[in-house]
Design brief:
CATH architecture of the largest domain: Orthogonal Bundle
Shape: globular
Number of domains: 2
Order of helices and strands: EEEEHHEHHEH
Strand order of the largest sheet: 3-2-1-4
Largest sheet: 4 strands, mixed
Radius of gyration: 16 Å
Helix content: 25-40%
CATH topology of the largest domain: Arc Repressor Mutant, subunit A
CATH superfamily of the largest domain: Winged helix-like DNA-binding domain superfamily/Winged helix DNA-binding domain
Number of helices: 5
């Protein structure tokens, strides 16, 4: 069973999803791949987990780095899960490139190289926006590409975290 609940953020409504124990999704309404990891029926329900997630989001949207993370259980392939785990290591207020992540994943897997494009596909399909911070990933040279929630939201999130935007640009 999937449970869902909405949250109104300063940059658009978010839909939270849970399996009853952990957060399985957090999407901006209308974003690419919206709710694509949900299978079966979804029921609107207020869960304690959704309250914790809303508390996390309130803290975040008030310009502070949350000091806790709600329980997460995103569904994906082993490769995507590895990329999403890597995203969670990107510090608040900092960015990395798709290539940086590809190099780290290659090292973890014991291979010489990894496609930054493959990493980009996994990043783009991240089902838990913001908390798994895919918005902190930029293209080589600072291009702001590839955010399923929209480039305007990506820029807003980075500014909220007080990222130095001087070297970043929208292609």
């Amino acid at each position: 069973m999937n449970y869902i609940c909405e949250y109104d953020s300063p940059i658009g409504r978010l839909t939270m999803a849970s399996d009853g124990e952990a957060l399985t999704g957090l999407w901006f309404d209308g974003q690419r791949y919206f709710a694509d990891t949900l299978s079966g029926r979804s029921v609107i329900k207020r869960l304690p987990l959704f309250g914790q997630t809303a508390e996390w989001l309130d803290c975040y949207f008030n310009g502070k780095e949350p000091d806790f993370t709600p329980a997460l259980r995103p569904a994906g392939s082993p490769f995507r899960l590895a990329v999403w785990d890597m995203l969670r290591t990107i510090p608040y207020g900092e960015t990395v490139t798709y290539k940086d992540i590809a190099v780290k994943i290659a090292r973890l897997r014991g291979v010489a190289t990894m496609s930054a494009q493959a990493v980009g596909g996994a990043v783009g399909h991240n089902p838990v926006s913001i908390i798994i911070p895919c918005h902190r990933v930029v293209g080589c040279g600072g291009s702001l590409t590839g955010y399923a929630g929209g480039i305007d939201r990506k820029v807003s999130l980075l500014k909220m975290e007080r990222v130095d935007m001087s070297g970043l640009f929208v292609p």
